[in-house]
Write a structure and sequence with these properties.
With 369 residues, the chain is of the alpha+beta class. The chain has 5 helices and 16 strands. Helices cover 23% and strands 28% of the residues.
Length: 369
């Protein structure tokens, strides 16, 4: 399909088969929402179909509008209305398509955001089903001007100064900005350019045809990948064990983050009490709730996450979080609402931590809180 020869793809544009195949791929993605393992309730089904529309927006931006690595530009695969793979409510994410055989310059200003990282990746959810790390550079390792300005060189060959490694099969750049307190911190800003002279820029019909089919593949690949993850997490319901870190990295995770990831499910009269008895030295930590499709719950309207800077601590330095459908009262400052959901994904992150201690969970009756 998307790997067909240019002449075949061009003919599919002329005779209309390209659009028909694109629509058929999207229709097939709907079957993921109807899997036997997915929740059958109305809210989960509605969110599942909305999720596919969000993935389509992200897929078109990534694979069509911002796809040319000769003329890179930043776009967002995750934000307030596009959510993928337990996206972090504390983050600003930016993506750019690059080519590991070319060289790039990234310039900008560090800002004051709590954590900032740049990572290059090989593969995509639309093709290989993964985003293998090929290089990472954190703000803590950046040489900065006095005003916070910086320049980073991206290439497959080592460079002096701020160098972000790539491999020849590198296809994308992912930038994470993680806030501790958004009201007090200033976001970083940056832009990217290809410094290897390249011709082109006009629409190439066969290339567009392949990109359009990859966009549909992105919808299928992404939704299927994380539905598989949730099915796997159902084996440790309402617990938060360390995840398979290699799998998390292959899905685009940050090398400095240790992920504890799982599936929560609560009856109307139940609450989930989560205790972190030991908080290690770390850049930050956070905990969040998501829906079944691993989309962070609506953090613009509801309190569904906490981090190192926003949580209330117990007298011994530990942290207790309560997940419940209703507010248990002022004695529980770390209450997170389920925002009308009865199940979904959840994730605890230790970011740049000296150690990764366990986090304990127990389900209790709401009235017993």
């Amino acid at each position: 399909m998307a790997d067909e020869d240019p002449a075949t793809l061009e003919q599919k544009i002329l005779d209309g088969r390209l659009w028909a195949e694109f629509c058929d791929e999207l229709k097939a993605a709907g079957e993921i929402v109807l899997r036997e393992s997915t929740p059958p309730d109305l809210l989960s089904r509605a969110e599942g179909y909305r999720y596919l529309t969000r993935l389509l927006r992200a897929g078109l931006e990534s694979n069509v509008e911002s796809s040319d690595p000769r003329f890179p530009r930043f776009y967002q695969l995750a934000n307030e209305t596009i959510k993928i793979g337990n996206d972090n409510p504390d983050n600003i994410y930016h993506n750019a398509n690059v080519d590991g055989t070319l060289d790039y310059r990234l310039t900008g200003n560090r800002g004051s955001v709590d954590y900032l990282s740049f990572g290059t990746k090989a593969g995509s959810y639309a093709t290989t089903g993964s985003m293998e790390p090929t290089g990472q550079l954190d703000a803590a390792d950046l040489a900065l001007a006095d005003n916070g300005d910086f320049e980073i060189l991206l290439s497959s060959k080592p460079q002096p100064g701020n160098w972000l490694p790539m491999r020849e099969d590198t296809q994308s750049l992912l930038v994470r900005q993680t806030f501790g307190d958004r009201s007090r911190e200033r976001a970083a800003h940056y832009q990217i350019e290809c410094v290897t002279p390249q011709a082109g820029g006009a629409l190439e019909p066969a290339t567009f045809a392949a990109q359009l089919l990859r966009s549909a593949g992105f919808v299928q690949g992404t939704s299927g990948l994380f539905a598989d993850w949730m099915q796997r997490y159902s084996s440790h319901l309402n617990q938060l064990p360390s995840d398979d870190q290699q799998r998390c990295q292959a899905a685009g995770g940050d090398a400095a983050i240790h992920y504890l990831q799982s599936y929560w499910k609560l009856a109307p009269d139940e609450a989930l009490v989560i205790t972190a008895p030991n908080i290690p030295r770390c850049q930050t930590w956070n905990f969040q709730l998501s829906n079944y499709w691993m989309e962070s719950l609506d953090y613009c309207r509801f309190k569904i996450s906490l981090n190192k800077h926003t949580a209330a601590y117990n007298n011994d330095g530990s942290v207790t979080v309560v997940v419940a459908h209703a507010d248990p009262g002022p004695g529980y400052p770390n209450w997170l609402t389920t925002a009308g959901h009865d199940q979904g994904g959840m994730l605890w992150r230790w970011v740049d931590a000296d150690e990764h201690p366990p986090v304990h969970c127990r389900v209790v009756q709401f009235r017993d809180l």
